[in-house]
Design goal:
The structure holds 2 protein chains of 2 kinds. Chain A is an all-alpha fold. Chain A is about 70% helix and about 0% strand. Chain A has a two-stranded antiparallel ribbon with strand order 1-2. The longest helix of chain A is centred in the middle third of the chain and has 34 residues. The chains are: A mainly alpha, B alpha+beta.
Chain lengths: ~400, ~250
Amino acid sequence: MHGVLPGVDGFMYPNEVELQWSVLIVLYPYLTGLVAGAFILASLERVFDVHVVKPTYRLALLTALAFLIVAPLPLQLHLGHPERSLQMYLTPHRESAMAMFGFVYLWYLMGVLVIEIWLDYRRDIVRWWKESRGWQRALYATLALGVDNVGPRALRIDDRVARAVTIIGIPSAFLLHGYVGFIFGSVKANPWWSTPLMPVVFLFSAMVSGIALVLLLFMATSWMRRRAIDMPCLDTIAKYLFYAFLVAFALELLDLVHRIYEADESFLALDFMVQTRLYFSQVVLQIMFGTVFPIALLALTQLWSFGERTRRWLYATAASAALIGILAMRWNVVIGGQLFSKSFLGYTTYKMEFAAAEGLLPAILVMLLPFAVLAVLLIVLPPWEDEPAAPSA
Amino acid sequence: MDVPRRQFLVESGRWLMLTGVAACAYEAMLAGQPVDAEYEMSDHWWGMLIDVDKCIGCGLCVKACKEENNVPDSPYYFNTWVERYRVQLADREHPLVDSPNGGADGFPALEESDDERVFFVPKLCNHCIDSPCTQVCPVGATFRSPDGVVLVDEKYCIGCRYCIQACPYGCRYLDPRTHTAKKCTLCYHRIVKGLTTACCEVCPTGARQLFDLKNPGDPIHAYLREHPVQVLKPQLATGSKLYYANLDGTVR
């Protein structure tokens, strides 16, 4: 197809010229990764008794919920027949990695996250129910499922069950996101995806992105509420971000070194792709700006003492760079995996439209939506422990 | 009517479950109906033999397939296509390959060269026994029929395109008209009537031969006894039933 099709270099199988998975599919692992990461941060407090991060516990859970609610949306928008998506639940093909997504998703949403949030908030929900009037009263009565027993014994049971749910929740969060990695890692036709490291790489990058997001949200919400940022809490989150980042980067390096050293039949084609079409998004955005730079910033804060203001800036910059870097990583996996021919003889180009069904505009809206959902959740279920009064919704 | 709540729940649950089971059973029953009354799926095991040395790159097969199977006319979509390989004798690792319009209009002439070998490779769905594409379909809309043909139920496909990603040979695409995955059906509508595929029918050199491994009278048995054949990407262990004779090792 030399020179015949625009955007194609070398030879692509004819049906490969058009990319099948668009920017929306880039967002899907990004969103689920943020969910898993935020949840794992929340579980630090409850399961591993890292009490210093308590101020972020509820915020992290609500963040996970907001992003989880939106996570299937890009998939749904992408389907050729979204009206048939329920078939995945009704007649799942058991051999398919993707078919199990629906069940893992539902389990994580209803079996873990909603139950944990409900148990943790139940006491407050009952209090808000009793203190409020009108539709708010009805809302909180509904959220409390009509049960107002918040006696010491009931609360003790709540706490015990919530702890158990969190303990089940950690492997579930691992499952949710490791599984997303498996969807890509198990495609043997595609050497860019096919590696058993993929689920683990996805998991640790998920932890990085989730922790970075909650760190930024914690700073932003403290600032918006005109409260001083709880620095011991922020320092601890940044420390965990640093650790998670080191593991994530080590795994990605392992994958990279392994590919370079093994140099199998696909290596030359992939190497060329990384040095040309993926250079900016992979080398510049993902590795340099999104990984090495924030790791260096976080390392600085671990090695030297800085004033609070400087630390805040360093953390915020590192977390923002991390979020961009992980988004670039998802892009490089999903889009990069479709830019080269499975014949290893050529490359195509991804042409992203703007206002089309799978264009940039819907992608931006899908990315903003979880923040809107989170804003509503923060109003209905304020997570701040320093504001005991009824919410003003 | 005074029905205790527990009994109501149990009864309605039972009815709901049984209705679902009955609906599934009915659907399975209909799905088991033979396409043609005289055609017995379990009596056949289809595949195709391609003799690379016989292909002249005329593209008639591609045209016939497009017409017979209503393949979208835009240049990106093909159930079958033909690739032209130019293998430099001094650099076998980097063959030059082209397939303008899938080879449907033939190929532009090349200058004669003693330094390269030129040949044509027809491609189509490999109708694999262990198809990576059917494995990944989340709803089972694509499947291997009992007679060994990989098919797509376009009324059930949700259009997620996972199968397109999973096919190592680039044989699938999303039909822009139906928004479902589409591919070579081995002219299933023809072979159940005892006809051959459209591409085999029009091939002027007999480079393509449909075969039925369960038919003892099929010449494929004699051919396989006497000739070595290969499949594409054997390392992927897909159980391809697209056999190639005289295939050069550079072909991917």
